[in-house]
Structures are given as C-alpha cells and as structure tokens.
Amino acid sequence: MHERRYTKEVMAMRAIKKITAVLAIAATGLLGFSIPANAQGIDVAVSGRAAATPAFAALDLSANICTGTEVVTYTPGITNTSQSVTRNVEGNLGTPLHCTDPAAPTGTYTELTNNVVTSCTDLLALSTGTRVFHWSGGGSSTFPFVRTVTRANGNVVVTHTGTISSGMYASHPATLVITIPETQLADCSTPQGVTQLTGVSALTIVITNYCW
C-alpha cells in the first residue's frame, strides 16, 4: 500500500515537472525571457514512506496589449539639416479596440519638447527617453525606454523597449512599437520639411507572477 502511494506521488511530481519545463520553453520563445532556474524544477526528498513538500512555483503569464496611434508634430518642420524645433508627441492607446486588460482599457501619453535640435537623420538614431501612460481606469505607468529604428517593407519601425519603473505594472517589461510609412519622410529634402508624422502603435506590457 505504501509503495503504491509512493509511486503515484513520484509520477505526479514528474508530470508537473514536465509541464513546468514546457511552460519555460514557451515563455522563452514567445516572450523573450526565461523562467528562473528555481521555478523550473521540483526538489523532492523521499524518506521512508513520505515525500517532502515540493519547492514549486506556478507561473502566471498575461499581458496588457494595446493598439493605437501616435502623432508627432514639428514646428518648424524638420529637414535634413539640424535646427531647433518644438516637438509635440500625442499618443492614444486602446483604439480602435480596447486594451486587453479591463483595468486599463484605454490610455494616452504626451510629450512636449521645446528648442530640441534635430533633423530627419536623427529620426533613425539610437536614443533614450521616458513615456508616461495615463490609463482611463485610473493610475499611470512610467516607461523609461531605449529607442531603436529600422526600415522594413516601406515603413520606418520605431521600437521602444524597457521596464515600467513606477505606477501601474511597475517592474514589468514593456515594448512600444510605432510603424510609420516611409513616404511621410519625403519632405525632408524640401524647405518646409516634415511637419507631422503619424504612425500605428502597438504596446505590450508582459505581466509575470509567480505563485509559490
């Protein structure tokens, strides 16, 4: 009787361990981060007829995913030559569909910078900054980021990566991607320059919880 119970316990522990390993692989491949080593395995000490309580962390993965738009205006317009301009950023999240987290169905962010020296060339340069997302459900999220820019399929793709530093979703990784048609840069070589850029945005905040 005791031997049969021991066998069932070991088989159950092995099954849970395999499931946890599969979750670890899936999280690494899909979300770009790995589960800590102490959450991937199960330590079972067997003495006599009883098995010790396993050290196991259940992983709860979710995300707040938002689509939206971002509009950047420049006064005066930016050209291929550096000059001092006023830059205004207005972003809307949760349009046309609401974000996936009911606690934050929509959001906005703005940034107004005066006397910034920039040019069309600078649009493609590596940079850093901070966005503050203000959520319609209440609260905000401060998002310091590293900004990279690539060109693909006729678009300029601006990727902001970082970790929410404070407020709602604090300590969770986030990525904000803005896709702008490259044709909007056609006026860089004209005297009036580019006065507005409009892009489609996609924000993903990965929410990871370990339940011990």
Structural summary, described in words:
The strands form two sheets. The chain has an eight-stranded antiparallel beta barrel. The chain has a two-stranded antiparallel ribbon with strand order 1-2. The chain is elongated, with a radius of gyration of 24 Å. The chain has two helices and eleven strands, in the order ααβββββββββββ. The chain has two domains: 2-56, no CATH class; 61-211, AOC barrel-like. With 212 residues, it is an alpha+beta fold. It is 16% helix and 51% strand. The relative contact order is 0.17. It starts with a helix and ends with a strand. The protein has helices spanning 2-31, 37-40, and strands spanning 46-47, 50-51, 58-78, 83-93, 107-118, 127-135, 140-152, 155-163, 166-167, 173-181, 194-211.
Give a brief outline of the structure.
This protein has helices spanning 2-31, 37-40; strands at 46-47, 50-51, 58-78, 83-93, 107-118, 127-135, 140-152, 155-163, 166-167, 173-181, 194-211. The chain has two helices and eleven strands.
Attribute tags:
212 residues, AOC barrel-like, 2 domains, 8-stranded antiparallel barrel, two-stranded antiparallel ribbon, 11 strands, elongated, disordered N terminus
Task: Give the fraction of residues assigned to helices.
Answer: 10-25%
Strand order of the largest sheet: 3-4-5-6-7-8-10-11
Radius of gyration from CA coordinates: 24 Å
Q: Which H/E pattern describes the elements? A: HHEEEEEEEEEEE
- Helix/strand structural class: alpha+beta
| N- and C-termini, Cα separation | 31 Å
How many domains in all? 2
What does the main sheet amount to? Answer: 8 strands, antiparallel, barrel
Q: CATH fold name of the largest domain, please?
A: AOC barrel-like
Q: Give the CATH level 1 class of the largest domain.
A: Mainly Beta
What is the average per-residue confidence, as pLDDT, rounded to a whole number?
79
Provide a count of the helices: 2
Please state the second-level CATH architecture of the largest domain: Beta Barrel
Number of DSSP strand runs: 11
The rough form would be described as: elongated
Strand fraction band?
Answer: over 45%
